[in-house]
Amino acid sequence: MSNQIKTLLLLAGLTGLLMLIGYFIGGFLGISIAFVIALTINFLTYWFSEKIVLFLYKAKPASGAKYENLHEMVRELANNAGLPKPKIYIVPSPQPNAFATGRSPKHATIAVTEGIMQLLDEEELKGVLAHEMAHIKNRDTLVSTVAATIAGAISYIAIIARFSIFGDRDGKGNIVSIIILSILAPIIALIVRMAISRSREYLADETGARIIKNANPLAQALAKLETSSKQVPMDLGTEATSHMFIVNPFTGNAFTNLFLTHPSTAKRIGKLRTMKF
Length: 277
What we know:
Layout: H1 3-56, E1 60-61, H2 68-81, E2 87-91, E3 98-104, E4 107-113, H3 114-119, H4 122-137, H5 141-166, H6 174-195, H7 198-212, H8 216-231, H9 265-273
Parallel strand pairs: 2-4
Antiparallel strand pairs: 1-2, 3-4
């Protein structure tokens, strides 16, 4: 399935879920209001989801003077991949991690945390940047960012629905609220899971390794990131965006671990180690 179709399905799914919530809250008037809200969110999600995600992580543009070497690496990788140079942002978090976002290669951004800049050496960092460049080249970034924004929007609206129905003095909405929320919780996770399959991470690993013609730097980086990301918590953002990062930034719980969007890091490293150039 192409990423364009996935994006349309995600937007259609958001509209349907919002209208369902609107119906339970306010009947057919609620559906009408929810439909208008859904159209607005769909528009904002497509055109501004990149900015929303960067805002969630308090990311700031990497200054050319301070991060001259980082810009040079990204410029070189973009040339090797045959892509325009993406914008570069810095996430003020000590956790070592990175993600790519943007609706197209012409409107793409790579964001890296302060922690990853301190943890990895230059070759390992280049391997991570090549992985993110691969997501841009493979056009994963639009559906990835849209999925994150939609999952966050549904979570927020579900909370509003819960308080709206629990506020019913007659108490008639309580059972309906529980049913809605019990259905929505796994759907939110499944939307993200369906949007970004684990195979896309394997493909980005492979494509990134081919961009720099060397799989070892990324393999070494993944080993370091797997250990450090568990030791240093991510204190920004939301679990709805976890699939965007090169490694899962959140430890999660027993339920969320059932819907992990990343394949095993050990398996990813194993596949990289078998690549030949």
